[in-house]
Structures are given as structure tokens and as C-alpha cells.
Amino acid sequence: MTQAPATDAVQKERSMILQKEMIADHYKQLEHVAETGRKVVYTFVPGNLNELIRCFDNLLPVHPEINALQNGMRKRTGKFILDAEKQGHSEDVCTYVKADIGMLRAGNIGPAGTKLPNPDLLLLSYTGCFTFMKWFELLREEYKAPVAMLHTPYQGDGTISDHMRNYMVKQLREEVIPKLEQISGQKFDIDKLREMLARSREAENDLVAVLESAKHRPSPIDAYFGGVYYIGPIFSAFRGTAGAVEYYRALREEVEARVAAGKGPITPDGELKEEKYRLVVEGPPNWTSFREFWKMFYDEGAVVVASSYSKVGGLYDQGFRHDPEHPLETLADYCFGCYTNLNLPSRVALLSKYVQEFHADAFLINSIKSCNSFSAGQLLILREVEERTGIAGGFIESDLVDPRYFSGANIKNRLESYFQMIMQKSKGAA
Amino acid sequence: MVLDELVDYCQRLYEDLDFRSVQAWKAAQPGRKAIGYMPIYVPREIIHATGMLPVGLMGGDMEIIRGDAYYQSYICHIPRSTIELGVSGRLDMLDGVIFPSICDVIRNLSGMWKLMFKDKYSKYLDLPQNFMPNVGGDFYVDELRSMAGDLQALSGVEVTNARLLESIRLYNRNRALVNALYDLRAAEPWRVPTVELYLLLRAGNVLPVEEHTELLQTYRALLDTAQRPQLDNSRIVLTGAFCEQPPLGLIRTIERAGCYIVEDDFVLGSRWIQGPVAETGDALANLVSAYLERSVANASVYIADKPKGESLVKACRHRCGEGVIFCAASFCDPALLDQPMLAHAVEAAGIPYTEFKYSENTGQFQVIKEQTGTFSDSLKLWGTT
Ligand code: SF4
Ligand code: SF4
Questions:
Q1: For an engineered disulfide with A206, which of A248, A270, B138, B309 has Cβ 3.0 to 4.6 Å away?
Q2: Which residue range forms the structural domain that includes residue B152?
């Protein structure tokens, strides 16, 4: 779901360059699989098993959501979606799926401008959203590729039971690992997996330090718009790699330096000089007008200090770390813990906690037309968070990658009135 | 009872959004409890074995006063009518609700229920998507055991193996009668109008299974006394309506437009398990293996080893369907994401199809009437499978 291309921000920091290089190298490797003989595993972001894929050293992951969002940022998805709809895909369903199908039909040229290889395996780690299952059923029809299915039970009661964990471990042993072995032609090596998990943990510690930095005033980061860049490597093809460890160390150092210097976040128009509003945001961003959307916030001095979207690929800030001592169990726990696999009471509790711990003065929901997983129930979430925190929430609507559902003027108006209201409230309180 | 009276009775049950029959059932004996369940499939046998009444919740065509305030315009209708029923107090007679894993909307509704009705039992039932007995099967046994434990605590009645086997037996009998009616409708559709069959199925949502079984038997016997002319209708298979239900008027419109519906997925939970569940041995294990081995193909279930649409094509062949109507609720992700794959399969099999969407509160049927009428005419003129 995440991983945006490194921004052309005015201030290019080392972490940005590292990320850009990592991504470019990955696409290069994908471009050359025919020569290198490497195999390609398509898989999703929330609950991805990157360490497991990567411990077979001839496997390379591809994340269709990331292709969709990057194509969205490059304004290519409008046409892809229309093409998919012309071919019989409903206008009512998730636009990531249609953007992917449209891209495939248009020759599968990925966001890097090179042809993406077909999958040798569809690793359906199905976490927090039913659409994933349908999506890979559709891709199975298109590519005739085998599927390895990992069904992650939902935290319906807000807890993880032993029987849920056992189920996952058995699926990993009996379904996922054998298929990865078969595709790669290599034997699964649990020690290699442990090594990767140890590196994941290291990077996760640094990511958490970055996310926690937003508790400072001013916050040195924007945890939503900037956050999508920060979570990119760890939510996708790089968790468990040495590259990710290096990236997160560099990022942490940069952010800590900003804290020490009392600086605000970097935006595409430079450093934000005055932090007027501290927001918690629920829901994914819009990608087709990402810059325009972000600008509506920083122009008003609004900084997002915590967001649920930056937790779709794991709730590290709540204490989860990959554990090399229990390699399969930890993969299971990771999948259970992704944000959209939490039940609504847990989501409300988490968001309210963010408002309090990050000293936010505003709470905003960006409700995404495409995404029932996030959106169904958000109006109740809004009310519950308002009630628990005493903050009046804001609500806007857009879509991920369908430009038809991004009405810039409308959203801008709503945001401006919302910020005004927050300002008046805070003046009244002062 | 004559046929019309029986159908009227079912229609009254269908229209009664205050669930008076459930209230009456509870009032008839102190201490009785009722458990609601959302579509599609919940093993009602377990609820029954605790002496509680399973009550199927399927939204409804009603004025939405507060339900809309909980949902954005791009979310299907059934959760808002369910919330409406809840906040208006019409589900107060329920002692709990079970939300099976179908889609993200029902899944999230389970959490909303926990937030909104804190003093009531609410359970998200995760049905396995892995169908290996030692993997998905073991998980499902544990899920059911935990649900049975909850229901036991709520009712004060232990779910013994003997009680559960008895419930299985009763539901097997019920399913067999429903299936027999489906078979009869496919063989002689003029004798079993779908509107009637549908109302009968809906009655099964609110009546105790014993009573519903009797109703099915009576209906079957009364059919033999009814004289109904055979019309020159086309035979169609309808699919996509497994969760949010179309309004009755829509089903009637399709029939009046010249279509005999010979297979459908309305109220699918009542026919989810194909064939009887074993009536001896370990009852819970029997429910689990029936689910793993004999669930119907549906958009909410991962199909690992068969091509998509195979079962729809088979159903068409088996029921001598001449065409398919894809009839899904607006914004229904599972149905609408499935549809292109199913359409592809029926097309490859040379079966014509048409498609439209509905909402449970759709009030205008003219366009659908014209569309299905034209479809039916074209089937009669040009296309048979
Ligand atoms: S429905 Fe939401 S979570 Fe699911 S694939 Fe689409 S955008 Fe992602
Ligand atoms: S109608 Fe479809 S999307 Fe809506 S709750 Fe039912 S299955 Fe889910």
C-alpha cells in the first residue's frame, strides 16, 4: 500500500538518496530476471512476508499496490481504471485492483517505465482486507500463476489466540514454504530467516524512533505525508535487508538532528517554519493529487503527528518487533497486528491514544471510496474518538488512485473551515 | 391452510421488521434467548443446540433515519439497515449477534456492534479459507468450540454432543426439504414461483427450525393442489445476491418479465452445506468437515483448486439454465470483484448473460423489467446453451 518515490524535496537528505537507490536497484533486478533466472513473487504490503521471500535468494517480490500508488502519483491510473471498467470491472470496487488490471492490459509497464516480469507465484498473504483475495483470484486468471494462500484471521475480539497463531504457523509450514521452495528450487533455511528477522528488528527500532519524534514540538516529521516515504522500505521489498537497516539508521540520525535543532518537517516547498496544528489522520492518502493534497496542509501550518496509514504494514510503535527466536510465530503475529486487521474498538482506542500521546489538537479522517477495509465504520470511529478525546473531528472523502474522486476545491474548503474551527476553539480555550 | 394463506403468512413474517414472531417465541417461555446472525453462513445448529433461537438478519427495505449517519454513500445498504434496526430498538430482543467473515463491511460491523451495543454478545466468526482438515479444519474446530462456549455461557445450556447431533438432524431435514423445492422449481418452475420460494426461505430466518420444516412440508403438499399454467418463459440462473437481498418487487419483476429463475443464491446460508451433515460421531467435527468439503462456491470463499466460475457453469447445465443474470448489490465488493471472472467463464461456455445492480431499498423496477424482458426474449429467440 505504501512506498512513494523519493520526493524531489528542496532538501535532499542522505536517507532520501538511499531509498531512491534501493528502489531503482530493485526495479533493475526485476527488469533483468530473464537473464538472471530469478523468480518473481507478487505479494501485498499488509502482512507481507518479505523476510521469508528474501531468505530464498533467487526470489524477488513485487507489490501490486505499490505499482498502483506509484502509477497514481504519475497520473497514469485514471486511464488504467477506465480501461478496466470498460472490460467489465465494476465502478464500485477498489481502484487499486482496477489500476493494476489496467496496467497489465497496457503491457505491464511498471512505474519505473520498464516492463514488469510476470509472477512465478502469487503469495496471497491476506491481511486486513478481503479484496486482496479477489485481487489475486483475478491475477491468477490473467497470469495462470500458482497461488500460495495465507489466511490471516481477524482480531475480531481484539486479541490473538493460540489457535489463530497455530493456524498461521501450519499454513506457513504446509502451504507457503513448500510453494516458495518449489518456485525457487531452493531448500528453506530457517537460520537465514532468523538473520533477516534480526535485521528487521534493527530497522524497526529506528523507524519507531522516527515516528515517536513527532511527540516533540515542533514535530520534526510529518507522519502522514512524510510518513509514507519513511515506511516505504520497511513495508515492502526491503525489510530484513542490510539496505533497510542502513536507510533507517540514516533517517533516524537526520530526524534526531532536526529535533536537536528544533526544526519542523521538510515539505516539497522546503522546511515548515511554523507548526500551527497538530493532527492525527485516519485513512490512506490520495495519490493522484498527493502534492496538492499535502500542500493544503502545510500551507495552513498543519502537521500530521500520527497516522493510522503508516501502520498498515505493522504496528511497531505499539511494541511489536520481529523475533528471530520464534521465526514462524513472529511472522504470524506480524500479520495479525497490521492496522486494518484490528477490530474497530482497537482502532478507536489506538487513534484516541495517538491524539493524547502526540498532543494533537485535530483529528481528521480521509475516507477512501475504494476501501471498505478502512472506510466502513469510519463515521462511528469519528464520533468515538471525538467523545474520548474531546476534540472535534474533521471528515473528508477522496480516493486512492481514481482522479474522478479527488475534488481539490471541495477538500480545500472543508479543510480550511476545519482548521478555522480548531483555531477558534483553541482561542476560546486560551 | 391454503397455499395463499401460507404465502401471506410468510410475507407477513418477511415484512415484520419488529420481529414480533421472535418476541412471541421468547415470551412463550421465560428465559428463552435469541441470537441474530448476519449473512451468509453460520452453523445455526450450534445456536439451536443451546436452546436459543437463531435469527437471520438480512437488513430490509425500511426508512433509514439514523443508519445513514453511520455510512458513506459508497458503502452497500445492508449495514445501514442493520444499524437502523439496532438503534431503533427493533433488535432489542436479541441476546447477541454473530458476524461471519464475508467481507470487510460485515467484519467492521462486528466491531461497530461491540462499540454500540456494549452489553450484548457479539462475535466475529472467522470461517477458514484454508480447506486442509489439519490446517483450516483444526482452526475452525477451535473457532466453533469458542463460539459454542460463549453460547453455552449465555444460555446456561451445555452443547453436548448428543444435543448437537440432534440439531444437525433437524437442520439436515430442513435443508433436504429446501433442496427438494429447489429441485422441483428447476424441473417445473411454473409450479414454484421464486417469490414464494424466497418468502419461505426468509421465514426460516425467524422461525424455529422445527416449525419452518413443517411449513416447508405443508407448502410442498399444497403445491400438489395448485393449478398453475406453464408459461413460455426463459430459464435463468441468478447469481450475486448472497448477502444484501434484493427487494421482493425485484424478484417479482424478473419473473413477470418472462424469466423462470431456476437457480439463485438468495438466503444462501440455508443451503450453504451441500448434502446432509453426518448425524453420528463427533458433531462438531461433522460440521467442520461439511464446511470444508461441501460448502457452495461463493465469492466470499477462496477457491484453490478449481477454475473460477466452474460451479456457476455447472449449475447452468444442471438446471438447464439458458442464461445468467448477474444481480449484485451496489458496492458489494465480493460479488462485483467476482463478476468479471464468472462472466468470463459463462461466456466461454457459450451461456448468454446480463447484469444489473440493486439495493435492498430499490423502488423503481422499470429499467430492470425492460432489461430482463429483453434478455428473456433474446434467449427464447436465439440462445440456448
Ligand atoms: S480495499 Fe483497501 S486495503 Fe483492500 S486492497 Fe483496496 S485499498 Fe488496499
Ligand atoms: S452486500 Fe456485499 S459488501 Fe455489503 S455487506 Fe454484504 S457481502 Fe459485504
A1: A248
A2: 21-159
